């Protein structure tokens, strides 16, 4: 079976090389990466998205994307475009502090390249290719000089710029630029903002908000069709994280456990980053049993599965609230929905849909990691990826130029082959029996032997 599989793979890869040879005459591949912030994976099952479902019908859907810890906006958007865990790309939270340089980072103070330069995002790599450029409509980091490079076309971040204006810019840049824009990104703040405000369990409000999102997708597709970009453009629609329901009945009040003068709080909820002002162990002891709904870790004890330890920007103590719990400082929090929790929680996962010449049509896949998106995008664009934490083979089943086999299919093939072999063997045995029955000599000989004495008489 192994040798047969190998032969099939060799045959297919030969065919693929042949196909690729033909396409080298056409234009360089183009990719548009779209993120709707806070689009929880199961919104797709629980609400109606006629435009998005049409998009998926013509392309692929990954139902769950396992994102990176902490499940916040800036860190996950940077993981999508670098393929790295947060400890490796350096954007470890939406609020950060660097003890060496005494620099602060927040979503409104994010322009210092210092924070971003630990990794190289795909738009920079694409930009350094001959005769190619990148464009961005507000993806986090695209208005920062990372490794001395911004996309050739970008917008300074402002949440007051409408989706339509962002789409109009991006589509203009995609249609008439020289050198051509081959990689573009588009970012939109919803449904994250409404998810925080109403909570994901507020079906009525979320239905309205998600219908608006679907209409925006409809607008984007219509615009791409109108400008003749639709057929040759690869489009990925994804998100950074999900959302879970919070409640004022699930608060963890740090002020009840420790005096504020003992520490600085770099980030609060649901993952608090604590920088002690007194002895670290003393602060840890005070926080350790603060709440049964919160895990408290010294930096060295943060579980390996988070890949969230080896970076100076991760503070000496972190507190991780259980799903739906909010860490507060003796004051109210109006959030009814939040994210940032354990990245193994399904409620924290986004989805991914993709359509275009690089992708299969009508293919559904259960899960990939958010860091797998980067090597896939590099493959589509023909870029050499920087070292990363993603696995290209996880996305092979989504791509038309790759031969993939998943476990159920492999089992099916083995069972099928065994059945075929068994049937064949049975057929051969039956045929042999049928042939041997009317064989004249054997019967005659048998009779001869048995009837020997009778014949003599
Ligand atoms: Zn958010």
Automatic annotation (TrEMBL):
Xref: Gene3D superfamilies: 3.30.1360.180, Alkaline Phosphatase, subunit A
Keyword Membrane: yes
Transmembrane segments: 410-430
Leader peptide range in chain numbering: 1-21
Alphabetized InterPro entries for the sequence: Alkaline_phosphatase_core_sf, Phosphodiest/P_Trfase
GO BP annotations, alphabetical order: blood coagulation; positive regulation of blood coagulation; purine ribonucleoside catabolic process
GO molecular function, one term: metal ion binding
Pfam families linked: Phosphodiest
SUPFAM superfamilies in the record: Alkaline phosphatase-like
Membrane topology summary: Single-pass type I membrane protein
Keyword terms: Blood coagulation, Cell membrane, Disulfide bond, Glycoprotein, Hemostasis, Hydrolase, Membrane, Metal-binding, Signal, Transmembrane, Transmembrane helix, Zinc
GO cellular component assignments: plasma membrane
EC number(s) recorded for this UniProt protein: 3.6.1.29
Substrates-to-products reaction catalysed: P(1),P(3)-bis(5'-adenosyl) triphosphate + H2O = AMP + ADP + 2 H(+)
Named cofactor requirement(s): Zn(2+)
Major place of residence: membrane
Keyword Hydrolase: yes
Compartment annotation: Cell membrane
Function: Hydrolyzes extracellular Ap3A into AMP and ADP, and Ap4A into AMP and ATP. Ap3A and Ap4A are diadenosine polyphosphates thought to induce proliferation of vascular smooth muscle cells. Acts as a procoagulant, mediating platelet aggregation at the site of nascent thrombus via release of ADP from Ap3A and activation of ADP receptors.
Family: Belongs to the nucleotide pyrophosphatase/phosphodiesterase family.
UniProt protein name: Bis(5'-adenosyl)-triphosphatase ENPP4
Protein species of origin: Marmota marmota marmota (Alpine marmot)
């Amino acid at each position: 079976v192994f040798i047969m599989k190998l032969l099939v793979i060799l045959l297919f890869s030969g065919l693929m090389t042949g196909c690729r040879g033909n396409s080298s005459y056409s234009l360089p591949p183009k990719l548009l990466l779209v993120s709707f912030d806070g689009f929880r994976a199961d919104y797709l099952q629980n609400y109606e998205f006629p435009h998005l479902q049409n998009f998926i019908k013509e392309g692929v859907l990954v139902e769950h994307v396992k994102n990176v810890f902490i499940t916040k906006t800036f860190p996950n958007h940077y993981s999508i475009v670098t393929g790295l865990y947060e400890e490796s790309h350096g954007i470890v939270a939406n609020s950060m502090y660097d003890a060496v340089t005494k620099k602060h980072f927040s979503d409104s103070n994010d322009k210092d390249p210092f924070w971003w330069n630990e990794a190289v995002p795909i738009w920079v790599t694409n930009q350094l290719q001959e005769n190619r450029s990148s464009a961005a409509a507000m993806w986090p980091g695209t208005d920062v000089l990372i490794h001395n490079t911004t996309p050739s076309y970008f917008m300074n971040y402002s949440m007051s710029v409408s989706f339509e204006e962002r789409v109009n810019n991006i589509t203009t840049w995609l249609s008439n630029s020289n050198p051509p824009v081959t990689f573009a990104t588009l970012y939109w703040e919803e449904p994250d903002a409404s998810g925080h405000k109403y909570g994901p369990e507020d079906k009525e409000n979320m239905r309205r908000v998600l219908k608006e999102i679907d209409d925006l997708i409809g607008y984007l597709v219509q615009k791409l069709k109108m400008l003749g970009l639709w057929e040759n453009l690869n489009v990925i629609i994804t998100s950074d994280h999900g959302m879970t329901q919070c409640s004022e009945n699930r608060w963890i009040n740090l002020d009840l456990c420790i005096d504020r003068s003992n520490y600085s709080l770099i980030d609060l909820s649901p993952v608090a980053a604590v920088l002690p002002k007194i002895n670290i162990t003393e602060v840890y002891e005070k926080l350790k049993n603060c709440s049964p709904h919160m895990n408290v870790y010294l930096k060295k004890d943060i579980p390996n599965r988070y890949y969230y330890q080896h970076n100076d920007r991760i503070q000496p103590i972190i507190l991780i609230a259980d799903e739906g719990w909010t860490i507060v400082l003796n004051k109210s929090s109006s959030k009814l929905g939040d994210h940032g929790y354990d990245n193994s929680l399904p409620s924290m996962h986004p989805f991914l849909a993709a359509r275009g010449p690089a992708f299969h049509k009508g293919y559904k896949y259960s899960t990939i990691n958010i860091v797998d998106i980067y090597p896939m995008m590099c493959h589509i664009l023909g870029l050499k990826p920087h070292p990363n934490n993603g696995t290209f083979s996880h996305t092979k089943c989504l791509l038309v130029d790759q031969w993939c086999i998943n476990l159920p299919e492999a089992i099916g093939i083995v069972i099928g082959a065994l059945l075929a072999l068994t049937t064949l063997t049975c057929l051969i045995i039956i045929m042999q029996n049928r042939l041997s029955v009317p064989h004249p000599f054997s019967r005659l000989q048998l009779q001869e032997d048995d009837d020997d004495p009778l014949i003599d008489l």
